Amino acid sequence: MRGFTAVFRREVAERRLLFFLGLAGCVPLFLPLVVPSYLRADELRAVSAYLLSGIVAGVLALGLGGSVLARDLAERRLGFYFARPLSGWAIWAGKLAAALALSLGVGALVLLPALLFEAGARSDLADFGAGRVLLTLALLAALVLLANVVSTLVRTRSPWLALDLTAAGVLWLLGSYAAEGLLRAGMATVAVTFNSRLDLPLRALLAASPVALTAFLAGSAAQVLGGRTDPRRGHRLLSLILWGVLLAGALGLVGYSRWLLAATPADLVALGRVLPAPTGSAVAVQGPAAHRGGYWPTFLVEPKSGRFSRLFPASQWNGQETVHFSADGRWAAWLEPQDLSRTGPTVLFRLDLTRPGARPLPTRLTFAAPPSLLALSPDGRRLAALEHGRLTVEEIGSARLLAAVPVEPAYPWESRLLFEDGGHVLYFRTGTVGWRLRSPGIDIIELDVATGRTEVIGQTPPVEDSSSPEVSPDGSRFFVHQPQAKLQLFRTRGAVLEAELRSSAQSSGFLADGRIFTLEAAGETGAAGRQLTLLSPDGSVLRRFPFPGAHALRVGGEPSPGHLVLGIATHTVPSVSDGLEHWESRLLDLTTGESRSLGRGLLPMGAPSAGPGSAGSRLFQRSGGRLVRLDLATGRERRVAGRPG
Amino acid sequence: MSLDSSSPGLAATAATAALAADGLSVRYGKRLALDGLSFTVATGSVYALLGPNGAGKSSLVRCLLGEQRPAAGRALLFGGDVWRERARLLAEVGVVPEEPDAPPAMDAGQLLRFCSRLYPRWDGAGAEKRLARFGVPMNVPFGRLSKGQKGQVSLTLALAPAPRLLILDDPTLGLDPLARRAVFEELIGELADRGTTVFLTTHDLAAVEGIADRVGILRGGKLLLDEELESLKRRFRRISFPPASPSAADRAARLAALEPVAVAARGFRTEAVVARWDEERFAVTGPGNGSGSGDVEVSALSLEEIFLALVGGAGGSGEAGTIGGAA
After folding, report:
1. Most CB atoms closer than 10 Å: which of A95, A505, A518, B25?
2. Is residue A85 within 8 Å of B91, Cβ to Cβ?
3. Which residues make beta-bridge pairs with A387?
4. ipTM greater than cut 0.90
5. pLDDT reported for residue B192
6. Cα–chain-centroid distance for residue A167?
């Protein structure tokens, strides 16, 4: 320790003039400042002091880190220390610690006057917290080490420099390969949006930072402790340890990212989103994968065969579905980012669900930014998109633009876009345009693809601000919830009000054939007893089905004509996914009103509009986040996603 | 003493010697800078290592200071492996490097203060007096001192801890004759009574002749010679005889028994340097035994002449090997 202290003191004393630089650095903070109107003078001084302090400390860390050892070695002055009774550790640590202390000390000196005279700066420091102070220290230490290592590699002029450059290239390739995986898993989006899935980049950073720091620390130490005054031997040791650790770390990161992306539907521990194709057995599933730090993979699964495709859809910020199916069930389409940083254009991918072994393929359709609304034509050959105030229809195979019209965009959360048939697109535009209420009602705009003309074919009376239209599968009708438990059913063409129901509806929707259901409380609020009401497509009540002991109901689709899958909660459940053991699924005969149990601990997962032709009406959730396909005749279950129970 | 490899005998000596090399090899890529070097320096002696440039002297010194890891063998100080125990062993060692390498921004006073914290003993007052005696300013940065002043500062830093061993790597390199003499007088004056062991590499052979107890000559990474200086000087002689006489061939043949290391024609005479001078044997087998013996001249050699004969002469241009061997 005596040796370390002697070297440390010597290095600091030799560069004591730097402290005058620190004192000089704080002078500008006391000069009259031109203060922007949105800032107070004291705030500006505090910000400037922190900024200047950071710059000074960073530059010094790089400068001193690059010279304290490497320069002595290159100029053959390190022998002065090694000819004394000083351990290699004392020389190495003493010099680098002095570089760190000097950069930190001079940086602090720049900040000192602001801390003494500006209350704002003091409170900023208090807000900064001990953790961030330590992080700053670690960052400065990393800069010192980085500069030391790079400077040593360059200054020793050893032939090993060629190996260093090669290793750096390999490291870059491995790092890019690993980063590609992490970016595909959505790391950049997660990092930028600071959402709850921050776990993933945090894990990658937590894993990579100590490895890199260890590599620099161990390499630098080995260069001095093992190489001593022999530059070539020192360089060799530094290179071997530095690149050995870094490349091993990079390989580990590559392995981690590959493993991350290798998640299968069987790795899902919960179901985030389940979207069955309207026809056929394909289903898109998204959810958190086990042990993967918040990675939510998306799969297209063929439940019968168990085959699946991994999708990397562009993140959705507007509440729209990530995967779109054609009504005939042949095509699935989705957007993937072209640039892995997920900040660039997006490309439309699609998969032919009828071809066994088909793989997702990119189309020639790209978008500068993800369109706010997308719709796939019933045959899956055309794509309608709303982007930047333009409604376009393109042929997917040829990327030919069939129609493009300017439309005033609205808030996408509340708007809908769908193909009425192959030649007409319907755009349900709510009143909110930008951040202001343009119109109190909903506009229904029809685009004739052949002529490229748009026509407002309907305009509803005022609706509640946040109402979004629920549109029937064929687009011929829609309804909206209004205040005072009012549900208004409109015919799309002309926005003709067909029915107005007094309903305390908690949930409602269309079945595959256009009939409507509503779910409501049968008794007092909060008490047991629920009721399902079935209405004809024009809104007349067909039948009511009471469920006296039910605490919640959920409609799961129509697996065969006249039969509806229902989930019934037999106890109070805080949320749908909690307390699965309290859910029982039943098959309700809509003609007789009788129902038979399909099993307990089963929750219907298919959309209510899933008809007999869709596997959605046979999809259920089991505990542990498992998605199962139930054979309604035999009661046999097949696991679609989730870990084996 | 055997010089070509480490042996149990050498190991035993090395353990008690102030300094020793035990089968020391240093390699730079394919080039062998030191080739299995073994020798010892007895406590209290002054050992001068001589050798042409590139002989491996600096590599040897770096190994002895624990700065360079040998490819094979060990460098020992006071019986300890200096690569493994460098910091502990160097507490008893003063070092004067070939090139003064102290930090250029530090002045002599700062250097003395810095080094004083590192050694168990430190004669600070003596060091300051010494620098004053040689007119070295205390407050001028080391980088601005003259070459002679830098050398004096280096020597002062080496002597101040009262070391048991002093390692001097060509300490007079680049110094003028006056400064050179001052360095060696200092060594004789200060160290003679202290019993300090001195290991010295130098090209200043005349100066070494006055202070060295033992001499080693290094060439091509191998020791050509490792011997007491007195013994060395006793066995080397220059023999001069006329070459044109009828019995010249016969004389040359007889010289072989005296181990000639260099034979050269000088005008009308032939000069030979022999490594095994023996007056009695010379009387029987030497070139003087025969007709014209009055023409033969025998003279003693200085260390420099011996060195040149071995390293620079015809006899020394052959492949490196051990010459003599008397210890």
Report:
1. A95
2. yes
3. A390
4. no
5. 65
6. 33
CB–CB of B103/A77 below 8 Å? yes
Contact A76 B102 (CB under 8 A): no
Whether A85 sits inside 8 A of B91 (CB atoms) is: yes
The continuous run of DSSP H or E covering B219 comes out as: strand B214-219
For chain B, say whether A159 makes contact (Cβ under 8 Å): no
> What region does A526 belong to: left with phi over 0, alpha with psi -120 to 50, or beta?
left
* Residue of chain B whose alpha carbon sits nearest to that of A9: B114
* Model pLDDT for residues A506-524, shown as the tens digit of each residue: 688 999 889 999 888 876 6
Shortest CB distance from A80 goes to which of B28, B88, B103? B103
3-state helix, strand, coil in chain A (%, to 5): 35, 30, 35
CB contact under 8 A, A3 and B118: yes
Q: Whole-prediction pTM value? A: 0.75
The minimum CA-CA distance between B139 and chain A, rounded to whole Å, is 14
Which amino acid is residue A167, in one-letter code?
A
A233 touches chain B (CB under 8 A): yes
Q: What is the pLDDT of residues A356-408, one digit of tens each?
A: 888 999 999 999 888 888 999 999 999 999 988 899 999 999 999 999 999 88
The minimum CA-CA distance between B66 and chain A, rounded to whole Å, is 8
The Cα–Cα gap between A24 and A105 comes to: 14
Q: Residue B118 and residue A84: Cβ atoms within 8 Å?
A: yes
pLDDT for res B1: 38
**Nearest residue of A to residue B167, measured between CA atoms:** A83
A72, A83, A230 ranked by CB distance to B90: nearest: A83
Exposed e or buried b for every residue in B261-287, given b needs 16+ CB within 10 A?
A: bbbeeeeeebbbbbbbbbeeebeebbb
Q: Please, are residues A351 and A300 in contact by the beta-carbon 8 Å criterion?
A: yes
Interface test with A, best of B95, B114, B121 (most A CBs within 10 A): B114
Contact criterion met (CB < 8 Å) for B69 and A226: yes
Nearest CA in chain A to B91: A85
CA distance B299 to B271: 11
Which run of H or of E encompasses A630? strand A626-630
Residue B13 pLDDT greater than 80, yes or no: no
Residues 6+ apart with CB under 8 A from B169: B57, B58, B61, B95, B96, B97, B98, B201
Token reading at A540: 């007349």
Helix runs in B39-176, H state only: 57-64, 86-89, 108-116, 124-133, 147-159
Chain B residues with CB-CB distance to A86 below 8 A: 87, 118
CA angle B86, B215, B227 (to 5 degrees): 110
Question: Does the pLDDT value for residue A566 go beyond 60?
Answer: yes
DSSP at B140: S
Q: Each residue of B220-268: pLDDT tens digit?
A: 899 988 999 888 888 888 888 776 555 556 666 667 777 888 877 777 7
Q: Which residues of B touch A79 (CB under 8 A)?
A: 65, 67, 97, 101
In this structure, what DSSP letter does residue A114 have?
H
Q: Are B204 and B178 within 8 A, CB to CB?
A: no
> Among partner residues A2, A82, A88, which is closest to B65 by beta-carbon distance?
A82
Cβ atoms B50, B205 nearer than 8 A: yes
Residue in chain B nearest A75 by alpha carbon: B101
CA–CA dist B124, B188 (Å, integer) = 21
Cα separation, A10 vs B117, whole angstroms: 11
**Is there a contact between B102 and A82 if contact means CB atoms under 8 Å apart?**
no
SS (H, E, C) A226-238: CCCCCHHHHHHHH
CA distance B243 to B247: 8
Using one digit for the tens of pLDDT, what is the confidence trace for B268-278? Answer: 778 888 888 87
Report the first-to-last Cα separation within chain B, whole angstroms: 6
Cβ–Cβ under 8 Å, residues A619 and A606 = yes
Token look-up 């998204």 returns A286
